[in-house]
């Protein structure tokens, strides 16, 4: 799907405020409400807009420890990667996982109640014999920046005028 400047304005607006009203969205996009709403539905159907979420300040709800973990698997067969990724996908405390190139195979972001809870998670992963050869733990001491809004204007090619 080729995006134009109006599509980008719609995407930027709903990223900043997923609860924006139809009228306010239309104003930001420079359209009347019905054509704007139709464009938004088209972006949803194309899989560009995949959902609407609330940002929650977890630290205000419960104590939490953020951990980044590097994982290297002992073997690099497709089945080894698939087995590991299946377990990661089914583990709620692992909130993000990236397969990366370089010296490690994966980087995981884990949210745990405390260091003990993190260690219990690691122990359970090791007990499942997923082929983890090495892992390194990095405790997040301070979040400097964590964006939830993507910089669309700088990442995408110049859109067609809309």
Task: Tell me about this structure.
With 162 residues, the protein is an alpha+beta fold. The chain folds into two domains: 5-54, Arc Repressor Mutant, subunit A (Orthogonal Bundle); 58-139, Lrp/AsnC effector binding domain/regulation of amino acid metabolism (RAM) domain (Alpha-Beta Plaits). Helices cover 41% and strands 19% of the residues. It contains seven helices and four strands. The chain has helices spanning 5-16, 22-29, 33-45, 58-61, 78-89, 115-127, 152-155; strands at residues 65-73, 94-99, 106-112, 132-139. A four-stranded antiparallel β-sheet has the order 2-3-1-4, with helices on one face. Strand 2 and strand 3 (106-112) form a beta hairpin. Helix 1 crosses helix 2 (22-29) and helix 2 crosses helix 3. The protein is elongated, with a radius of gyration of 20 Å. The two termini are 14 Å apart. The mean pLDDT is 92.
Set down the secondary structure blueprint.
Elements: H1 5-16, H2 22-29, H3 33-45, H4 58-61, E1 65-73, H5 78-89, E2 94-99, E3 106-112, H6 115-127, E4 132-139, H7 152-155
Antiparallel strand pairs: 1-3, 1-4, 2-3
Mind telling me the C-alpha Rg? 20 Å
Main beta sheet: 4 strands, antiparallel
How many H/I helices? 7
Please give the CATH architecture of the largest domain. 2-Layer Sandwich
Task: Give the overall pLDDT as a whole number.
Answer: 92
> How widely separated are the two ends?
14 Å
What labels describe this entry?
single chain, 162 residues, alpha+beta, Arc Repressor Mutant, subunit A, Alpha-Beta Plaits, 2 domains, 7 helices, 41% helix, elongated
